[in-house]
Design brief:
single chain, 377 residues, alpha/beta, Rossmann fold, 2 domains, six-stranded parallel sheet, 15 helices, 13 strands, binds ligand GMT
């Protein structure tokens, strides 16, 4: 199949899922054409069957606002025609789904049909998509997609209720390549971070308010009172400076390492003990899955799709939003009971392997593509 994929190229789960999907599809022999304004950050190294089409923006003094969504439409039209695409799969509705629908209309005028599949990821449905500046367009472009998928059952329900839609939606969860995401030798890193045998907690995110990074710091502050430990903060974003300030104020900054954006997450997870994700909203929680695949029990909030991923009392623990005391108690309990910890660690890896293996999930996407091409939703 010839598949076009549009996504955000920057850090953030939707772009990661889209890129990993493209890589897996290319490995299976499909031709995958990424269409975006920059090379997706996980698209590193040369890969057969993968092509990148950069969307250029017009440089004209009259245009004071960003016309990306229109330029994207034009690029989609070109790539569909000249690379003979079967499917245009867009990740994150805004603005990708409406750009794609416009491209479809233009192509239809020329007698060329193209199927549009929209994968909804999270805040396109739960937050920014509901803003009055976006809602009518998001609703329309979802409704007009030939196929719609969500990354959790939670997000399917939210899509139907928030937008008052009555359309079939396929739930296809996120996935990991279980050969790449597995525990490796993390002893060198661990020796650097925790030279005195301290426990290592890790958080990965875009440091947006929705991730509640200050709760990560508060939780860690509680944990280190009883358990010698270090906190590794991976990622960057608007709340990083405030998190660093809080660490200085609490006088724990020497036990917290802010790494910024990183690409070698499996190495970092392999040198860590527990993953923290106290988010305000999370339709799936991809970083938690990646950590679990590396054998880290996850301590997450109870929101959104997280309970579909993290099994309370088995692969980790789930707490109410903002309940940092409870999250800290769970962490201390796991870190101080090695046998229990080992059971949770094994269960976390097993859950990733059994339920979220790329081999199985990418096959679901392929089957769904076939269905949509047959005109079924
Ligand atoms: O909705 C977002 O915040 C954007 C998106 C992203 O690009 O980071 O994140 C969402 O998609 C991820 C991949 O499917 C999910 O793992 C995240 O849970 C989800 N984020 C939220 O729902 C806040």
């Amino acid at each position: 199949m010839n598949i076009g994929i549009t996504c955000y190229p920057t850090y953030g789960g939707s772009g990661v899922v889209a890129t990993e999907l493209g890589k897996e599809l290319a490995t299976r022999g499909h031709n995958v054409h990424f269409i975006s304004y920059a090379l997706p950050f996980r698209l590193n190294g040369f890969r057969q069957n993968i092509y990148f089409h950069e969307v250029e923006l017009p440089d004209y003094p009259l245009f004071e606002v960003d016309l990306y969504s229109l330029s994207l439409t034009s690029k989609m039209v070109d790539v569909v025609l000249y690379d003979d695409l079967d499917i245009l799969h867009v990740h994150y509705a805004i603005p990708h789904a409406s750009s794609a629908y416009m491209a479809k209309l233009i192509l239809n005028e020329q007698g060329r049909d193209i199927k549009i599949i929209t994968t909804l990821h999270g805040t396109d449905i739960t937050l920014i998509g509901l803003d009055p500046t976006m809602l009518p367009l998001v609703r329309f472009s979802i409704d007009k997609s030939d196929g719609i998928t969500t990354v959790s059952r939670f997000l399917r329900e939210k899509t139907l209720t928030n937008f008052n839609l009555d359309v079939p939606i396929e739930v296809i969860p996120n996935f990991v390549n279980i050969e790449e995401w597995k525990r490796q030798d993390g002893s060198c890193l661990r020796a650097q971070w925790a030279p005195n045998g301290e426990k290592v907690l890790v958080h990965v995110s875009t440091f947006r308010p929705v991730k509640r990074v200050l709760d990560v710091v508060r939780t860690f502050d509680q944990i280190r009172k009883t358990t010698p430990s270090k906190l590794i903060m991976v990622g960057d974003g608007p709340d990083r400076a405030e998190a660093e300030r809080m660490c200085r104020e609490l006088d724990i900054i020497n036990d917290v390492i802010f790494l910024g954006k990183q690409t070698c997450l499996a190495e970092i997870f392999s040198a860590s003990d527990l993953f923290l994700m106290p988010s305000q909203s999370e339709s799936f929680g991809l970083s938690a899955l990646e950590a679990m695949a590396c054998g880290l029990p996850a301590l997450t909030s109870s929101v959104g799709g997280l309970p579909e991923l993290n099994l309370h009392g088995t692969t980790g623990y789930i707490c109410e939003i903002g309940d940092t005391d409870r999250m800290a108690r769970y962490a201390i309990d796991l870190l101080s009971h090695p046998k229990k910890y080992a059971q949770f660690s094994t269960a976390a890896r097993e859950r990733a392997v059994k339920n979220f293996d790329a081999v199985d999930i990418v096959a679901k996407y392929e089957a769904y593509y076939e269905r949509v091409l047959r005109g079924e939703k």
